[in-house]
Amino acid sequence: MALGILPDDSKIDPSVTCEACEAVCCRLTVVIDASDRVPEHLIARGPNGVDTMAHGSDGWCLALDHANKRCGIYATRPSVCRKFAMGGGYCRFKRAKFANSGLSLRVL
Length: 108
Ligand code: SF4
Ligand code: SF4
What we know:
Layout: E1 43-45, E2 51-53, E3 64-65, E4 70-71, H1 79-83, H2 89-99
Antiparallel strand pairs: 1-2, 3-4
Protein name: Putative zinc-or iron-chelating domain-containing protein
Organism: Dokdonella immobilis
InterPro entries: Puta_zinc/iron-chelating_dom
C-alpha cells in the first residue's frame, strides 16, 4: 500500500469488535521494539537485525490463543499491537481483505 492512501485510523467504526473477528490483525508483521518484553520463543530474528513476532504455518502470530481468538501474551504484547485501533481504518481494511481471502482461523 502506498503512502498517501493509508486507511484513515482517525475514524473508528464502533460496530467493529474483536469478538466478531478472526484475529485478522494477528496475521500482520509486527516489529518488536527494543522496549518490548516478548518471550524469546515467539520472536523471529530478522537477518537485518529487525525482530518480529513469529508466525505459525497458518500465518497467524505464534502468540495467538487460537481457541479463544485472543492474544496469549496480552499483558506484554508488543507496543505495535497496543496501538492498533479496533474499528480503525487499517483494521477495517484488513478485515475486508481477509473476508475475500477464503482463509479461516482454525483451532490448533
Ligand atoms: S483489532 Fe480489528 S482486525 Fe484486530 S482482532 Fe480486533 S477487529 Fe479484528
Ligand atoms: S502479540 Fe498478540 S496482539 Fe500482537 S499479533 Fe501476536 S497475538 Fe496478536
